Amino acid sequence: MEQREFSKLTLKFLEGNYPQFAQTIKFQDDRSFDCDWKSESGIFSIWIATYNTKITIGIEDPNGKTDSHIPCYGLDDLGACVAELSSFIENIKADNLVLYQGEDGKYDWIESSEFENLDNCKKFSWKINHDVT
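User: That's the sequence. What structure does it adopt?
Assistant: Structure tokens below.
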């Protein structure tokens, strides 16, 4: 599949389901794009990119560093890809999946129910900042 068509289909999905991302679209010369959505807490952002005809979702942590998840490849995988993308976004918004900062200062995602098993970590949710140490 051509990059232009892949990005067009991905953008259509975002516009219909998560228009907050579509407002920040930045197209590249190859017609891939990236976009982001800042959390309601203002602590971190979720970003999406369509480089190399794949969808990648990631986080930009409070230090401006990024980490990525969910690479999905090509049109044959697009339906499963956007379903997984949507699930990931919805779990973040529902605080089922939270950002945390470990003792080493690095950020990562974890399921809320698993967070209590971590020691000396700070937890950041989509809506409210929880500072748990």
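Residues 78-93 form the longest helix (16 residues).
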